[in-house]
Structure formats: C-alpha cells, structure tokens
Specification:
Elements: E1 5-10, H1 15-30, E2 34-39, H2 42-49, H3 59-75, H4 93-105, H5 107-122, H6 131-140, H7 145-154, H8 156-172, E3 180-183, E4 186-189, H9 194-203
Helix pairs in contact: 1-5, 2-8, 4-5, 4-7, 4-8, 5-6, 6-7
C-alpha cells in the first residue's frame, strides 16, 4: 500500500486549527503520510461556501463556540484563551509568513511554524500580526524568524497571491472551514474529526 497523501487546509488564526495541529502532525507521522499544506484565508473562503465571519453569527452560535473551545481545550489538556486579546490579529502577516516558510523550508517546517503561531494567539495572547512577535515565535521553533518576516514584508504581494491561490484551491476541494483534511477525495472537517481520519487511514 502506498503512503497516503493528506491535503491539510489550515488557518493560523483558527482556534480549531490550534486544537488539532499537533495531533494531526503526530497522526500523519504514525501513518507515514505525505502532507500537502494549504494556507487558507477564511475571509476568502466563507463568502463562497456559505460561512459567516464570527461577528455576524447568531448569538447562540457564538455562545456555543466559546463553550466548545473551553471544553476541547480541557479535554485535550491544551491551554486556550477563548477570548484572546489579539483576535483577530492586527494584520494578515501570519498567513504570508507561513507561505514564506513553506516556499523556503518545506512542509515539516510549515507544520511547526503554524503550531508556534497558533500557540502565540490562543495560549499566550500575543499579536501575530506584529512582526517582532512572529519573528520571535519562529526563532523559538528553530527557524530564521527575522529573515522570514523580512521576506514576508519584501514579497508581500507575491506571497499573498499564493495564499489566495491556496484559498481558491480550498473552495475547489469543497473546503469551507479550518482545519480540514482531504485524503482519497474524502473531506474531514474539524479537529474533532481527527479520530475518524485516523480510523480511515487505518482501514485504507
């Protein structure tokens, strides 16, 4: 049996991506899967797929989201601030920096970089729209943080175009939220579908 290929659609701003990021990386390694990482701007995906930005959702949905974030954080023993001080971040820098990581350093580095940035916003309550914060987080993750932030600023238009391309690819793949995982044409949406993804890969 050939190694499975999993397309991983992530958002560095999504708490659900934060809750599932490390578990997905470990799951993929266990199944010796190849990963295709897509950096998704949900602001581009939602209008095309029926989603609403958080402030426009019904109060009941917003309240339930907060309950679920708290529960899943406790369930998975992950620290999480359900109303972080810098959400949304002050700029889309994290998207283009992750794209810079992917283009220069590959998939594995992108996975670790995304976890580092997600931890900053959801566990440490820092602003991943700030270049100094992003550079420090990436350096701690073993990457050349300052150089990557400089690259993101220098080539913002080209990297933003790649994010837009990934977002369009997500729409074409019938993705409507993050994180999402696609293997053999099967879509698994959400960190709460990782057990089912594990099951699917085990029986594949």
């Amino acid at each position: 049996m050939t190694a499975p290929m999993i397309d991983y659609y992530l958002s560095p701003f999504s708490p659900w991506t934060y809750l599932g990021a490390a578990r997905f990386r470990e799951l993929a390694a266990r199944h010796q899967a190849k990963i295709g990482v897509f950096i998704v701007d949900l602001g581009q995906v939602f209008p095309e797929t029926g989603g609403l930005p958080l402030p426009k959702r019904a109060p009941q949905r917003q309240a339930y989201r907060l309950q679920e974030l708290a529960r899943f954080g406790e369930y998975h023993n992950l620290p999480i601030n359900i109303k972080p001080a810098f959400f949304p971040p002050s700029s889309p820098l994290a998207n283009i920096v992750l794209m810079a990581v992917r283009e220069a350093h590959g998939t594995e580095a992108t996975l670790h970089a995304s976890e580092a940035l997600l931890t900053q916003i959801w566990a440490k309550e820092t602003d991943i729209g700030d270049g100094a914060v992003v550079a420090s987080a990436l350096t701690e993750a073993g990457l050349p943080g300052k150089a990557l932030v400089d690259e993101a600023h220098k080539n913002a238009d080209a990297l933003s175009a790649l994010v837009a391309r990934d977002s369009h690819a997500a729409i074409e793949a019938h993705i409507f939220g993050a994180p999402s995982f696609v293997v053999d044409g099967q879509v698994f949406w959400g960190q709460d579908r990782l057990d089912m993804l594990d099951w699917y890969l085990s029986k594949r």
